[in-house]
Each structure stands twice: as C-alpha cells, then as structure tokens.
UniProtKB/TrEMBL annotation:
One term under GO cellular component: cytosol
Entry keywords, A to Z: Lyase, Magnesium, Manganese, Metal-binding, Riboflavin biosynthesis
Protein name listed in UniProt: 3,4-dihydroxy-2-butanone 4-phosphate synthase
One Pfam family linked to the record: DHBP_synthase
Record lineage: Archaea, Methanobacteriati, Methanobacteriota, Stenosarchaea group, Halobacteria
Family assignment from sequence similarity: Belongs to the DHBP synthase family.
Length: 226
C-alpha cells in the first residue's frame, strides 16, 4: 500500500488510464463518505462495463455531468425540482448537498435496466456531453434523445468543481478534464457482497491489483488536479 502523499504516480496512472477509456477506483476521504467508486469515462462504457459495475461495485450506477453541460441541458438538482416535503431540509451528514439530478434512459432503450440498455444510455450521454461542450447538443436535442424517469441517475457537478465540492461527482469530472475526456463520467459505489457495507479502501485496492486497475485517493487528486 502506498503511504506517500501526494501519490503522483497514482494520479498520473489514473489520468493515463482514463485517457485510454479504462476504469479507475477513487476513494473520496475517510471523513466524507469513506467510499470507493468505480469510475469510467461515459463514452467508453459498453455492456461488459455495466456488468462490472453491477457485479463488482454493486452500488447505484450514475452519470456525473459538468455544471456547464447540465446548464446547457437545463438539468436541475432533484431536490430543487421536486415539490415534496421529503426534499425539505434534506441534510447530508457528510456534505452540504446531494448532486442528484434527473434519472434518465436513452429513448432507444426498452426497459432501460439491462446491461445493453444502460450501456446505450451511458455511452450516448458521454457522446452528447462531448458535443454539448462544443456547443453542438442543446436542451432540445437532449430531450429528444433521453427521457425521464429512467434507470441511470444523472449527477450535476459543482460549478467550481473541486474548489466547491469534493464528492466522487467532482473527483471523477476533474479526472476526466485532466485526461482530456468528455465531461461525463459513470460512478458506482463498491459495496461488499457479503456484508452489504461499503468496501474498505484496503479491500478495494486489493480488487484493483487483482484486476490490473488503478486505485487513487481523493486527497491525491485534490492536490494534483485542483
Ligand atoms: O451517492 C452517490 C450516488 O450513488 C455516490 O456517492 C456517488 O459517488 C456520487 O455522489 P458524491 O459526489 O456525493 O460522492
Ligand atoms: Mg453517496
Ligand atoms: Mg460518492
């Protein structure tokens, strides 16, 4: 286990892996969620990647979008969009607010939940985010391509990214930016299949080593990418 900080090698390996379209494991912080997410650039996701997220991560499969893309597509925070008492004072113990936005499916999916369907939704979100960042995919195109409710939860990144919030939403988007990838990343928490608890960083790191994947600490991304 690496104990140097910042772990420059891990950050560089994460950036290079992401640039190639490979997944990276990111631990946010022991004093935040204390969770490790498997994170992919959205446009690189295929049905095998969704299978890995379901079987080896097991949490909620979400796509984080940059604030600029979410603004272009007029995507609200879910808590602001819903008028329901459950959204009042929806305080988190570990952060100021949730990054949840709308849940969506691509309009060419059937139920939206199969590996093929979720891969299609996620990949097309990645491609559309890339186009939106170039000014070529607006709110009307988003609404004609995706419907809500759906089976992939969108997350909206903070405007100032890591300066504003240090969740997996922003850590993943900052890594995408550093790797010159589209401003859309899939995140999914690693949950222990036996205990149902969040996988420990040591356990997640061992998984990464077995699978030949990069594991990186959020604090190292914060130091190197901020
Ligand atoms: O709750 C979540 C969605 O399943 C996850 O924690 C995900 O990592 C994104 O949230 P955050 O940016 O708060 O870490
Ligand atoms: Mg969470
Ligand atoms: Mg998280």
């Amino acid at each position: 286990m690496s104990s140097t900080h910042p772990d420059v090698d891990a950050v560089e390996a994460a950036r290079a892996a992401f640039a190639r379209g490979e997944p990276v494991l990111i631990h946010d912080a022991a004093d935040r969620e204390g969770e490790v997410d498997i994170v992919y650039p959205a446009a690189a996701v295929d049905p095998d990647a969704v299978s890995r997220l379901r079987n080896d991560a097991g949490g909620l499969i979400c796509v984080a979008l940059s604030d600029a893309v979410a603004e272009t597509w007029e995507l609200p925070f879910l808590a602001d969009a819903l008028e329901h008492p459950a959204t009042e004072a929806a305080h988190l113990d570990y952060d100021d607010r949730s990054s949840f936005s709308l849940p969506v499916n691509h309009r060419e999916t059937f139920t939206g939940i199969t590996d093929d369907d979720r891969a299609l939704t996620i990949r097309e979100l990645g491609r559309a985010a890339d186009a939106a960042a170039e000014g070529a995919f607006g709110a009307d195109e988003f609404a004609s391509s995706f419907r809500s409710p759906g089976h992939v939860t969108l997350l909206r990144g903070a405007p100032g990214l890591l300066a504003d919030r240090q969740g997996h939403t922003e850590l993943g988007l900052a890594l995408a930016d550093a790797a010159d990838r589209e401003p859309a990343v899939v995140v999914c928490e690693m949950v222990d299949g036996d205990t149902g608890e969040a996988r420990t960083p040591a356990d997640a790191r061992a998984y990464a080593e077995r699978e030949g994947l990069v594991y990186v600490e959020g604090r190292d991304l914060l130091t190197r990418l901020d």
